[in-house]
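B., you asked whether I could sanity-check this one before it goes into the benchmark set. Here's the sequence:
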Amino acid sequence: METQPQQDAESGSALPTTPCSVVWSRGHAYVLEGFRARWVGRDDRGRPHAITGAEMQRRGWTLTHTA
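And here's what the prediction gave me:
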């Protein structure tokens, strides 16, 4: 099985733009909501959390879950 290379904001990679794309940030999965162009996930307490693409870039992100 081939794995995708890890991408993150530090390497200058652009966030995915396809609706329902999944990225990981700070140990949490976020899904791109296409009609609102925001990333939606859960915070440390399990509450819904939405952030913009610019905020996701500042926080750092990867395509794979890392420990």
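One thing to flag: The first helix runs from residue 53 to 59. Otherwise nothing jumped out at me.
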